[in-house]
Amino acid sequence: MTQQNNKSRINSEQYARLKAEATAPYRGLRQFIYITCGASGFIGVVIFLSKVLAGRDVESALPNLALQIGVVALMVFLWRWEQRRQQRPK
Fold it and tell me: Which of 18, 45, 53, 66 is deepest in the core (most CB within 10 A)?
């Protein structure tokens, strides 16, 4: 009888992590991108909202404000979609 080397066996935690990565590759990278783009959009919202409230260059600040709000909304949508996909039973 041959005995398998204990070091070559993968414990259940490592197996679960590898299986999750195989079913959703680059999930962590996607979430990092969602967070960074959402934070960037939020900073843009604050800047352009302050310009609009101050009354400075309103004609160009309003479309930019709308774009930044759209970026933040898109990142929130993608983040929630990613979370729902992870929780869905397989």
Answer: 45
